[in-house]
Amino acid sequence: MGKWRYGVILDAGSSGTRVHIYRWLNSARARKEASEQQLSSLPVLETKKQWTHKIHPGVSTFGEKSDRIGPDHLAELFEHALKYIPKHEVENTAVFLLATAGMRLLPDIQRKMLLAEICSYAQTHTAFQLPDCGIHIQVIPGETEGLYGWIAANYLLGGFDSANVSDHGNGHRTYGFLDMGGASAQIAFAPNATEAEKHANDLTLLRLRTIGGANLEYKVFSTTWLGYGVNEARKRFVKALVEASPDATELPDPCLPAGLNVTITGKPIEPGSSAAKGDEPHLLGTGRFSECISQTYPLLDKDAPCLDDPCLFHGSHVPAIDFDVNHFVGVSEYWHTTHEVFEMAHVDKAYDFHTYQERVQEFCSQPYQKILDGVNSKKWGKKVDEETAIEVCFKASWLINMLHEGIGVPRVGLEHMKGGHNGTKAVMENAKAKGYLDPFQAVNKINGTEVSWTLGKMVLYASSQIPPADDTLAVGFGSNEAGIPDDFQFAGGKDTLLADDFSEEPEDDWHDILSHSSNRRIPGFLLLVLIFALILFLVCGRERRHSLSSKLRSLLGFGRPTSPRSPRKKRSFPGKFFGSNDPTYERVLEEGDPASSFELADVDSDNDTSDSADGSRVGRTSGWATPQLKLGNLSEGGSGYFGNAVEQGQGLGLGPPSVVFGNAMERAGLMSRTDSKERLALSTVPGHRSRTGSPNRFRTPLKANVD
To answer: Which InterPro entries match (predicted)?
Structure first.
């Protein structure tokens, strides 16, 4: 195992998939080099701009052609990751594909087929570590996406540090997190002490682990609003326009620049099309931003019934937010819509309601042709193209309504707050030094690292790979209950460390632990062959057993075949193992405890699926007449990294134990004992040898050579 540990996450969003690569020091080295303060901090993750790569479209577009997701989509992403991960570390590198809103909207059967195809392709075409597809390849709920984002924001802002400089008051140190994509929006925050106690059942218990092996625990509220991302909100807005004027073919849209004509899907109107002929409705921009804000407000559904008070909007329960201590950072659309449109003209402007509304009002009131001229001259920067210019007015109105009317963020610049006004670059930098003390701040990168929920997921996973101190509980999240609740999600699928975290075997990797068999272990296939051979030997009858035994003795060079009345000789190893034709063998079956008479020596093994703490006992039998095979608790899988891999058993040639062994073994034991009693009765007939001097069978277990 090298100096670095790597992790790969594929963020499968609604519009495309982006691969992220992260790395961190392996835990042994990190502990060795850490200071006292660093031992109480989380692992330090690194990433680089060139390690990120995005392709279009999103995975959800493969819903009806799942067989093409591998070669047409995943191959490029995996190829990119392999360019930056050292070859010798690929097998130790965990890969995750976590899908968000786009996949949530797919029909259930299409979603399941896509996930299965993704898992199969990743396992057959890459060597990445993928032990549990149910955890590593999945559609994550919006609440989980928000929780990961909350981890990322606080990780970068120092909210988890022990020597925390961002004391927000009343002992509150963490930041709130807001995210908005195309289809959904999320919020995650740690309520103040009063609200946390009042709404304990609504919170998620999150557990991280420091480099020193200690736990960090937080109680976080996270929720999502599906359909409240900017693209889905726009669809609902246009639908409302159409329904308000069902007979109209020209629908005035205050959220579009004045003079712009587009279809109801936002596409240019082509000459000769149905929209151009007036056969179907189209949108006509009026460029009235104030009216746009008022018409998008009803989309919040503030009047929906609140079944669990308090609610923000759409009847969604959210504990009361104390903005004096809950300071939020917003990413994705919160950043793009507030900053990138005005990149060149107002690059020094941080978000505040007063300044932002002024700039948007100025932009959106211009005729469309003037806006188009500004786009062509790069007046608003390289990132602002015609499509962005058309969409920004609606997005800005939606963001303002979500922030201030929906979530309730105070309007900085109009409403008095402790954080004050942060309209200049100097003030913004001062806010950073204070720890972002305004109630809301849009961010994209902090200290050069993008604030992304994928970072939060990898922070959680990296901390789970640190060996715990003493009885430290597992890393992950679940219901707000003590210990490990039933719905607890382990950070990597199971609470299992990779090999570089075991000091006694620092050079072994994950594949070594799982697939490199001990040279002292009897292969399972040979063991099954031996057991079946023994069963057949017992049921084939006395004469056949005698014949087989004699031939084997002769073949192995242990003397010539003997007849039943030949003088008795000392038995060699084959004779002990397969028995002799001497009548003394049958006598042993009726003496003493058969279960303690003979058994194969215990075999040293690291088989995790054993039903005993002493290791595997697969090679054990309870006596000649009733051989048994203990397979462990196959119905529950094993304790190995793959969980229920043994349960499936097809690759091992195993069926249910009762089917494979049960009846055959019982018949074998019954026949042997019956045959023994019949021949024991013959021993009283004149002419038969006396068995008085026959020695008992040895009781010392044979030491099988399994090296």
So the answer is: GDA1_CD39_NTPase
